[in-house]
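The pair is set out directly below:
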Amino acid sequence: MADRAAGPATLRRAIGNLLRMAAADLEDARKLVRSRSARSARTLVHAAVLKMGAALSASAVGRFDGEGEARWHAIPNHFPAVEKLQALVAETGYRHALQDDGSPRQPPSATLVNKAIKMTKEALAELCLAFGVDLEGSRPAARAAPPEPEPPPPPKAPPNTYAAAQKLQSQRAGREGDKKGSNVVQLRGRRSMPQSSSTGPGRRDTLSRPGTSPSRTRTAPGLTSNTFWALMDRWGVEDGSALRLLDRGRELTSKGQRPRFKLSSEEAGLLQALQNIEATLNTLAKQSSAWVSAPLAEAPFKGARPIDWIIKRRLAGTRDLSQHLLQKALTASVAQG
């Protein structure tokens, strides 16, 4: 049996000739429009569309049955120019010569027919490229099936801001440890010196104060509570919900005002992830305040609002949303391309 990719000679010959006949119909339609016979020209455009549909149908089923009929239901969606041709079938199809009241129907305007001719020629060019058909020649089509579409590239993983924050914390902890080790050596060398109960103006206490934790007070440069509150204002998040994002038992002040505080490394990582989401929303031309409060129907959110998803899952939630937005960006890019 002949290979489907190459196709039997009869099938490839039929596809080539159907497309050449469609090109001849379009050329005759163009001449009729110039001679002010738009109604007949529209009929020829419809005939050209049906011949192109017949070529696609034959390719889809893998054989030519001699009838040359367009079977639109048998054509896969990824075949070239399918949607454009189906729209043209409806636009150029048969219409009764008389209207419902018995009066003659006005012929289509030359502008509309020329527009249909242009769209049909564009679709014909796509088919000739896909099947390898030379409209000026007489050889069969080079291929009996169009090339398979390339799969879309896998989405890029969102930046792991949590790992970056953890790395920064580890580096700073290492530098802090080196400083402490140096101070201990200095103290050991001074044990023979008399200790004074008073602290001189140039002396610094090298021991950590009890109750403090470096990992909870360090933060990334430029990230402050003011940065956090500014982002919450742009997103329109209520103060109570915003504090729940931090998950550290923070509350409004006794006067009901927003607290000012240093961000921990974990909070800094979360804030950076939120800033990345906002940057992606700006790229997609989406309004941040509306998006974070609107339910997402897609899995895995199932109707949850983005802000609630982040409160519930924190950094894992931001990664879910970044992945979702990245997929949206890729879809929009493919649609525009």
